[in-house]
Structure formats: structure tokens, C-alpha cells
């Protein structure tokens, strides 16, 4: 006699449908995130090329590297709202298609002014993060959302792909040719998301006007708390992944391709540790993960203050810095999934993601100014250590009961 005839409960059909599409949509979203993040970080790996061709100062270079972060940060707010309204499938495709224009125009820009203008709009692909978090969040049950958002967050490895391949592609095909290839990949990714991905059956469009939803999200205490923590964790990752090539060239005299290879290693360490941070948050609690992450950043920043020899301990310190920053980014969004109701996750993600992006905007500017003034990066590392220590103390005090 079957279990149903014995009177036992049948499996939840909604959960079965959900699980049947989880892996596919998580993989697709992670892939799209990686591609758009590669596009977002096209300028940083070629910083030395722009330096030589345009005769830029360290401050001008840091501004050029940081400028895409502005739109990539602030644009996450409206994009997160639109993701709640139209769903991740359509929004991923839209961002891929719209990003083609600035990608091509940056590749053909011949002056510093035009590079700044199109670099500003190159921030558009960086908004995809605010699409992916609510998209994958809706596909997973609460107990596995830390894992899901952590795996999705590994798509920030697009910065590693950019750091490693962009200089090599530029050498092989030239800067314009490299940007044409990136535009083609974006177009294919947009078509793939439209044709192969699906929004979760549990997702329903938010029909309330955008501004009231943003105001409601701003009233949620967790929005502000997680924004600060994400500005430190993800902002630190973005700052290093975009500015590290210039830092390595200035401080350790690496060639552009060598600096790109080492920056790729930095990004890969963060990519691998982000899903680990989400998974550990599901098992041990996000607060414990964040305390370990910020504590590790403090220690690595102190080591780097003293400008240690290259590779060991400097190279190891950068890799460990990336590992702890990745843990932190995974922990923050596990905390968001725990503290914020599902209907507001997209909007809150946009706000928190914007804070994270802005957190990555200012450090390159500070590092460039510090290096111009002193010829060293020591003060920048001191500021990083102090900021990470503040985040650690705040996490411990604000979420002791979480």
C-alpha cells in the first residue's frame, strides 16, 4: 500500500517545482553576473596603457579606474526596484543589452574626457548584482539562501577574468577589438538569459510605486546596518580588484600583464570564499562569519602597512585579504536574507548593493592621492585597518542576539 493510502502527507508540489529549477537558474544568474562584472571592470586592468598613452597622474588614473563604480553603485537602487517589478530574467537581459553601448564607446574613446564620460556609463553592468540577489533568493527556501546568494556572489569573479584576460586580449586584438569581443559576449548572455532562465514560481511582481517602496526599505533598520557592513566588505573587494593593478605597478614595479595575473589571483580568492561565507552563515550564523572576516582584514591591512617584500608575505597578505573580504560579502547577504522579508529583498538589495559599490569608489581615490603625496600607500592601509575594526565592533555590538 502506498504512503498516500496510509494517510501520510504528499510532498509539497510547490517545493518540488522550486527545486527542479534551482540549479539551472542559479548557474545562469551566476554566469550573467560574471560577464557583466567583467564588463564593469574593463578599465582597471588597462590602467598602465592609459597612463602611457595619455600621460596621466596617479590621481587621474585612480579617478578613471573608480568612475564606473559610481553608476554601478547608485544604479543598483533603481535596478533593484525594477527587478522587484519585472523579474530577474528580463532585467538581466536588459542590463546586458544596454551595457553594449558604453563597452564599445570606451574601447574607441581617444581622450581622457571621453573615457571619463563613457567610463561613468560603464557602471551600468555593475548594477546586475541588485538583480541577481532577489532572483536567486526567490528560487531557494530560507534555510539555503545563504548558500544560494553566496554561490551567486561568486560571479564577482568576473573581475578576475577581466584582470587576467583583458590585458592579454588587448595585446592580441588591440583595445577596440577587445571591447568588441566583450560587447558580443554581453549580447549572447542577454539572449541566453531571455531564452533559458526563468523567474521563480514563488516570485510575483511588486506593483506598488517605486518611491514608496524605497522609503519603506529605508525604514528597515537592517537596510542601514547591512549597508555599512557591505560598504566595508564588498567596497574593499571592489577597491582592490579595480585599483590593485595600478598599486602593484607603482609599489612593486610589475608589468601590466604580471599585475593583472596577480589581481586575478586576488579576485579568485574572494570568489571562492564568498559562497563559503554564505554556507558557513547558514550553519554557524552570519554574525560569527562577519566577525572573523573583519578581524582578518584588520590583520592583513596591518601587515601591508609595512610594505613587506613581494610574493611572501605581501602576495600572501593580498590573497588572504581577498579571502576575508569574500567571507564578509557572503555573510552580509546571508544576514539580509535572515532579517528582511522576501517582498522587500530586491529593494533592500539595491540599497545595500549601492552602499557596497560606493564603498569601492572612494578607496582608489584615496590611494591615488596618498601615493601622489607620499610615494607610499601606508596611510591607505591604516585607514582600511581602522574601518574594518569599526565594522567588527559594530557587528559584535549590533547583532549579539542575532
Q: If you compute it from the alpha carbons, what radius of gyration comes out, rounded to the nearest whole angstrom?
A: 21 Å
Per DSSP E runs of 2 or more residues, the count of β-strands stands at: 0
Main β-sheet, in a few words? none
User: Please, what is the oligomeric state?
Assistant: single chain
**How many helical elements?**
16
The separation of the N and C termini measures 46 Å
Mean pLDDT: 89
Helix-strand pattern: HHHHHHHHHHHHHHHH
Low-confidence stretches: 1-11
Q: By helix and strand content, what is the structural category?
A: mainly alpha
Amount of beta strand? under 5%
- Principal-axis shape: globular
Quick overview:
InterPro entries: MFS, MFS_dom, MFS_trans_sf, NO3_transporter. The protein is mostly helical and 402 residues long.
Task: Give structural notes.
The protein has 402 residues and is mostly helical. 80% of the residues lie in helices and 0% in strands. Helix 1 runs parallel beside helix 5, helix 1 packs antiparallel against helix 7 and helix 3 runs antiparallel to helix 15. It is globular. The termini are far apart.
Keyphrases for this structure?
mainly alpha, single chain
How are the elements arranged and paired?
Blueprint (H helix, E strand, L loop, with lengths): L12 H28 L6 H8 L3 H17 L1 H11 L1 H21 L3 H10 L7 H11 L5 H9 L4 H39 L13 H10 L1 H32 L3 H29 L1 H20 L8 H26 L5 H30 L3 H21 L4
Helix pairs in contact: 1-5, 1-7, 1-8, 1-9, 3-6, 3-11, 3-15, 4-5, 4-7, 4-15, 5-6, 5-7, 5-9, 7-8, 7-15, 8-12, 8-14, 9-12, 11-12, 11-14, 11-15, 11-16, 12-13, 12-14, 13-14, 13-16
InterPro entries: MFS, MFS_dom, MFS_trans_sf, NO3_transporter
Protein name: MFS transporter
Family: Belongs to the major facilitator superfamily. Nitrate/nitrite porter (TC 2.A.1.8) family.
Amino acid at each position: 500500500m502506498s504512503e498516500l493510502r496510509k494517510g501520510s502527507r504528499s510532498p509539497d508540489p510547490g517545493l518540488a517545482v522550486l527545486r527542479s529549477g534551482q540549479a539551472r537558474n542559479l548557474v545562469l544568474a551566476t554566469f550573467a553576473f560574471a560577464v557583466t562584472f567583467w564588463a564593469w571592470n574593463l578599465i582597471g586592468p588597462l590602467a598602465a596603457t592609459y597612463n602611457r598613452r595619455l600621460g596621466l597622474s596617479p590621481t587621474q588614473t585612480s579617478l578613471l579606474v573608480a568612475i564606473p563604480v559610481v553608476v554601478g553603485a547608485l544604479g543598483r537602487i533603481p535596478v533593484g526596484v525594477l527587478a522587484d517589478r519585472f523579474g530577474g530574467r528580463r532585467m538581466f537581459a536588459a542590463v546586458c543589452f544596454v551595457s553594449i553601448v558604453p563597452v564599445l564607446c570606451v574601447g574607441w574613446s581617444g581622450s581622457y574626457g571621453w573615457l571619463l564620460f563613457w567610463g561613468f556609463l560603464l557602471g551600468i553592468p555593475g548594477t546586475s548584482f541588485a538583480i541577481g540577489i532577489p532572483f536567486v533568493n526567490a528560487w531557494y527556501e530560507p534555510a539555503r539562501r545563504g548558500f544560494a546568494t553566496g554561490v551567486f556572489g561568486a560571479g564577482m569573479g568576473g573581475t578576475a577574468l577581466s584582470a587576467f584576460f583583458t590585458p592579454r586580449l588587448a595585446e592580441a586584438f588591440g583595445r577596440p577589438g577587445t571591447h568588441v569581443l566583450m560587447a558580443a559576449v554581453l549580447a549572447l548572455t542577454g539572449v541566453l538569459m531571455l531564452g533559458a532562465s526563468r523567474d521563480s514560481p514563488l516570485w510575483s511582481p511588486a506593483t506598488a510605486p517605486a518611491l514608496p517602496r524605497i522609503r519603506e526599505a529605508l525604514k528597515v533598520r537592517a537596510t542601514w546596518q547591512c549597508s555599512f557592513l557591505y560598504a566595508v566588505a564588498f567596497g574593499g573587494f571592489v577597491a582592490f580588484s579595480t585599483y590593485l593593478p595600478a598599486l602593484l605597478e607603482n609599489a612593486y614595479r610589475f608589468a601590466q600583464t604580471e599585475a593583472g595575473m596577480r589581481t586575478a589571483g586576488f579576485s579568485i580568492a574572494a570568489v571562492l570564499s564568498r559562497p563559503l561565507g554564505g554556507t558557513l552563515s547558514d550553519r554557524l550564523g552570519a554574525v560569527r562569519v562577519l566577525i572573523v572576516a573583519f578581524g582578518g582584514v584588520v590583520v592583513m591591512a596591518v601587515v601591508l602597512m609595512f610594505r613587506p617584500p613581494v610574493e611572501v608575505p605581501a602576495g600572501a597578505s593580498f590573497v588572504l585579504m581577498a579571502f576575508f573580504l569574500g567571507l564578509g560579502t557572503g555573510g552580509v547577504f546571508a544576514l539580509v536574507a535572515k532579517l528582511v522579508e522576501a517582498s522587500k529583498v530586491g529593494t533592500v538589495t539595491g540599497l545595500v548593493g549601492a552602499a557596497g559599490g560606493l564603498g569601492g569608489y572612494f578607496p582608489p581615490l584615496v590611494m591615488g592621492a596618498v601615493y601622489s603625496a607620499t610615494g607610499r600607500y601606508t596611510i591607505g592601509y591604516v585607514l582600511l585597518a581602522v574601518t574594518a575594526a569599526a565594522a567588527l565592533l559594530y557587528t559584535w555590538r549590533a547583532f549579539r542576539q542575532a
